[in-house]
Specification:
heterodimer, A: about 180 residues, alpha/beta, Rossmann fold, 7-stranded mixed β-sheet, 3-stranded antiparallel β-sheet, B: about 140 residues, alpha+beta
């Protein structure tokens, strides 16, 4: 068929963008992207709403098809330079380096979208910090433990990497300023 | 291929042909079809300076059409109309014509009709231009 479906429709992308913005403002709050995924992955839905020809993108574990990468419109870049990075949460990041921004331009820190996360299952994370009233208990499973180590290495506010965890049709955001642990 | 000529045929006919060409075939968008305003850059003829005439409505599409028996082929189109669906239809026609798949004759026929529309418009424009032509030699003789 000629017609495009979600997540490539502008109307849906606007809703997803607003939803992700809300999720970033309230770290640990799980949002539902189901109606706008078009039956695809929520990670692709998030990226379709955030990426355009003015952004750079790295598909670290080759999870997207060539057509999906083309439709995102973002320029391909190595992981250490990309504004948006897609990775498989179950894979070991090793000594992966991502853009952390600079003190003069902290907004240039990367956004890391981790796919295949089990939201609501797995080990409990206690989140606190801006946007959280007290603390939030969040269960995230299927994540290789090295991602948490890497996040500690990357994040030194205001520098750092913002994370989006995706699972099924849901997503949850973890900005660089959110603290993990008691 | 004459994207411009396909843009001159009735929209409904172009979209209907594209739908017909896709029977038994699948389409994948290689980029999101876009529509909007493009800055039109012109070159001033005396000094060759570049300048922007203004913005024109435009749409573009790039697709891959797959036929179970014949394989896959890419096509694209840029039209001076802000109509995504029309651009996609033109891109489908472009793909089929490039590959020479069944349906090429229908695309050629549509292109010929578009070219005829363009020829009529250019002829009318030329007639308007001809009326503005001034022969300075004759003016000089009358003055002398």
């Amino acid at each position: 068929m000629i017609a495009l479906d979600h997540p490539w429709l502008a109307d849906g992308q606007r809703v997803v963008f607003r939803t992700v913005l809300e999720a970033w403002a309230r770290p640990g709050c799980v949002v539902n992207l189901g109606p706008w995924t078009g039956g695809g992955s929520p990670a692709l839905t998030v990226l379709a709403a955030l990426c355009d020809a003015g952004t750079t993108f790295c598909d670290l574990h080759h999870q997207l098809s060539k057509g999906e990468r083309g439709r995102l419109g973002a320029l391909a870049a190595p992981a250490e330079e990309a504004a948006f990075v897609l990775a498989d949460a179950s894979m070991d990041p090793g000594d992966l380096t991502l853009a952390r921004g600079t003190l003069l331009a902290p907004e240039k820190g990367a956004t890391l979208v981790l796919a295949n996360v089990a939201i609501g299952n797995g080990s409990e994370q206690i989140l606190s910090g801006p946007g959280i009233d007290g603390h939030v208990d969040l269960r995230l499973g299927g994540i290789h433990p090295q991602w948490w180590t890497a996040r500690e290495r990357w994040c030194e506010f205001p520098l750092g990497v913002d994370l989006v965890f995706c699972s099924g049709s849901r997503a949850v955001c973890l900005p660089r300023h959110t603290r993990i642990g008691a | 291929m004459g994207d411009a000529d396909l843009g001159l045929v009735p929209r409904a006919e172009l979209c209907a042909l594209a739908e017909h060409l896709l029977i038994g075939r699948t389409i994948e968008h290689l980029i999101i079809p876009q529509r909007g305003l493009w800055l039109m850059e012109m070159i001033e003829p005396v000094h060759g300076d570049h300048y922007f005439l203004g913005e024109v409505p435009a749409a573009q599409a790039c697709v891959e059409v797959r036929d179970p028996a014949l394989g896959a082929v890419k096509g694209g189109a840029v039209l001076l109309q802000a109509d995504r669906e029309q651009a996609v239809a033109a891109a489908v026609c472009d793909a089929v014509r490039r590959a020479g798949w069944p349906g090429t004759e229908e695309v050629d026929a549509l292109l010929a009709r578009g070219a005829a529309h363009r020829a009529i418009a250019e002829s009318a424009r030329q007639a308007i231009l001809d009326r503005t032509r001034v022969d300075f030699r004759e003016l000089s003789q009358e003055g002398g």
